[in-house]
Design a protein that fits this description.
Order of helices and strands of chain A: HHHHHHHHHH
Structural class of chain B: mainly beta
Oligomer: heterodimer
Structural class of chain A: mainly alpha
Strand content of chain A: under 5%
Helix content of chain A: 55-70%
Shape of chain B: globular
Distance between the termini of chain B: 65 Å
CATH architecture of the largest domain in chain A: Orthogonal Bundle
Strand order of the largest sheet of chain B: 1-28-27-26
CATH topology of the largest domain in chain A: Cytochrome Bc1 Complex, Chain D, domain 2
CATH class of the largest domain in chain A: Mainly Alpha
Radius of gyration of chain A: 16 Å
Largest sheet of chain B: 4 strands, antiparallel
Distance between the termini of chain A: 28 Å
């Protein structure tokens, strides 16, 4: 999957951004993978639209400082200033939210996902409508495959978050639970 | 497996909740349905989530604006500028003065002092260890190590800096001679769990010249593995791993009683039981290798856990020295061994309470003085530095404390990335 994402970057712009390249010139490469208007069409690649600016700043900073390792993102953010990161995060936060998956949802799975999310207090931090808040990301309408990948990463400690709350939260959950939660959030209206 | 409808589970939860609040813990344990513990371990079916056991804290959670204010608080990812620090909000008793010692230090956490006067500052969320070098009035901040993973635990011993990252321990010998060109730390121990949850460490050296650190519980509340929820010790070369104590949820502060030579530590207790219980603990190890502090069976020394407490009594476990407030997140602690502060501070404990998130009205967010009796038991607790909470919001969060050679006290603030200095007596020239 990582090679796929790198491939997409290379397709979107002939060369990776140079450390000196200003933020504005890098943005088209961002949206080549993360989708026009921040709604991603690429497997395992998150939609960015309407992510809270605080959360987006933290993730960009973690990529730049290699606190979170994802080679394409570490390359994309290399050399950006703190101000650039905040500017980038502001742009992301003002994009429209991604639209939920438009199929006819399985009512049973939706209900299971909703119940699991509430039992585990996802709605406390991510808000009732899962739009996120400050340091907590938006989940509503996020790509199902990306949600599943993130949850699995928290479970096996391969995804480093800024702080460790998600590792606490996923501790009692099983892979089947992740699938139902991701199904529900990706289709949440 | 007994299936309990959501409605009756709710009623039971309410009953249990009031029992917990009103009755002594033993009574709650006798009257609660004995099926609960068994049911907790039943796996969810493919068709629907497992019904929650009676009394589960997951039952009946409100989906309200008030509940949503209980989210954990992340510090700003970029340290506050020196002129944006909340210095004017911080208060201390008469005779004490608070200054800014250093700023711009990402997520400043554990503080340690070198023999030559260098102050070392660790980080929990970032990758660096910083050194503050005081050169007769001007202070310079240098990076000693970088590219580390959650390097919260640091300690200086005979010129060597030891670093406890999430899953390994390393060292830099004669570190104060190498501040301008520090070598990569040499790893001395790698065999530690890699759990992100409560994976960060506190590190100290005992009177026996061994490294002491903890492996926290990898969860809020769970049955930890054999490797988790323990204090360990190691020889300075990384050999001879031994268990010192068990049944510990998470520690972010330890120190040695200067007279009794016993290990005292702060322990953070579980979330989501209620607003007011359990309280964080101050513990001490009196029987190394034997003490068990109760996690996950018993909280704050007298409340059996509603899932894991069945079949146990809190009397099986080592009692806390003191309770430090519900969800207060008591972190760094040191015995005050200086002579600048009033005599009543001598050999008493100063604790940084990081402050609560899992509570509607914040508790902690201050530095407190815990006074002990000569036998090491609790006498009293009083505030030393307050003001980190303004209108129920944090303007800073104290993470660790350290006594300087002159007897002043440094306090780290991981929210703002700053270090403050607390001094006592006639005010000298204030340096920013």
């Amino acid at each position: 999957m990582r090679s796929l994402a790198i491939g997409a970057i290379l397709a979107g712009s002939a060369v990776l951004p140079l450390p000196a390249q200003p933020l504005d010139e890098r943005l088209p490469t961002c949206f080549a993978c993360h989708g026009e208007n921040g709604t991603s069409q690429l497997p395992d690649t998150p939609s960015l639209g309407a992510q809270p600016a605080f959360y987006a700043t933290v993730q960009l900073l973690m990529f730049r400082d290699r606190l979170r390792v994802s080679e394409p993102m570490n390359e994309m953010t290399k050399g950006l200033s703190d101000t650039d990161l905040q500017k980038g995060a502001d742009i992301i936060s003002k994009l429209p939210p991604p639209q939920p998956v438009a199929d006819a949802p399985d009512a049973g799975r939706m209900e299971r996902g909703r119940a699991l999310a509430e039992q585990n207090r996802c709605n406390f931090c991510h808000q009732s409508n899962y739009a996120g808040h400050e340091n907590v990301p938006r989940l509503a309408g996020q790509r199902e495959d990306y949600l599943l990948k993130a949850l699995r990463g928290y479970k096996d400690n391969s995804r480093y978050a800024y702080d460790a709350q998600m590792s606490d939260v996923v501790y009692p959950l099983k892979d089947g639970d992740f699938a139902d939660i991701a199904y529900f959030l990706a289709r949440l209206k | 497996m007994i299936h309990v409808s959501r409605r009756s589970a709710l009623v039971l939860a309410g009953t249990l909740g009031s029992l917990l609040a009103a009755a002594p813990p033993a009574a709650a344990q006798q009257q609660a349905p004995p099926a609960a513990a068994e049911q907790q371990t039943a796996p969810p079916t493919a068709q629907q989530p497992a019904p929650l056991p009676p009394g589960s804290p997951l039952i009946g959670r409100p989906d309200t604006a008030a509940a949503q204010k209980l989210a954990p608080i992340a510090p700003p990812p970029i340290p506050a500028a020196a002129d944006k620090l909340p210095l004017d909000k911080l208060k201390a008793p008469k005779g004490f003065t608070i200054d800014v010692y250093a700023s711009g230090i990402d997520n400043a956490r554990t503080l340690r002092l070198g023999d030559k006067g260098t102050v070392f500052v660790s980080s929990r969320l970032k990758d660096k260890i910083h050194a503050i070098v005081d050169k007769g009035g001007t202070r310079e901040v240098k990076v000693v190590a970088s590219g580390l993973h959650r390097p919260n635990g640091i300690v200086l011993h005979k010129g060597t800096l030891y670093i406890a990252e999430l899953s390994q321990i390393s060292k830099i010998d004669n570190v104060e001679d190498k501040l301008d060109n520090p070598p990569k730390p040499t790893v001395i121990f790698i065999d530690l769990p890699k759990d992100e949850a409560h994976g960060w460490k506190f590190l100290t050296v005992g009177p026996d010249e061994k490294l002491y650190f903890q492996v926290g519980a990898p969860c809020n509340i769970c049955m930890p593995s054999e490797r988790h929820a323990k204090i360990y010790r190691l020889n300075l070369d990384g050999s001879g791993l031994e268990v010192v104590a068990s049944g510990i949820r998470q520690i972010v502060g330890m120190d040695w009683h200067p007279v009794l030579k016993q290990l005292y530590f702060t322990e953070n207790q579980r979330d989501w039981l209620s607003e007011d219980i359990p309280e964080d603990k101050l513990n001490r190890v009196t029987q190394p290798g034997k003490d068990n502090f109760g996690f996950p069976y018993c909280h704050q020394g007298n409340i059996p856990d509603q899932e894991f407490g069945w079949g146990h009594s809190c009397n099986e476990f080592t009692k806390p020295v003191a309770l430090l407030g519900p969800h207060a997140a008591a972190l760094g602690m040191r015995f005050y061994t200086g002579s600048m502060f009033p005599a009543a501070y001598r050999n008493q404990i100063i604790i940084a309470r990081h402050g609560s998130w899992n509570r509607s009205t914040k508790v902690g967010g201050d530095v407190v003085l815990v006074k002990l009796k000569p036998d090491g038991t609790f006498r009293s607790m009083e505030p030393l530095v307050t003001g980190f909470v303004q209108n129920n919001n944090y303007v800073g969060r104290p993470a660790d404390v350290m006594v300087m050679k002159d007897g002043s006290l440094l306090v780290s603030d991981d929210y703002n990335g700053a270090v403050y200095r607390v001094s006592y007596g006639p005010q000298r020239t204030v340096r920013r």
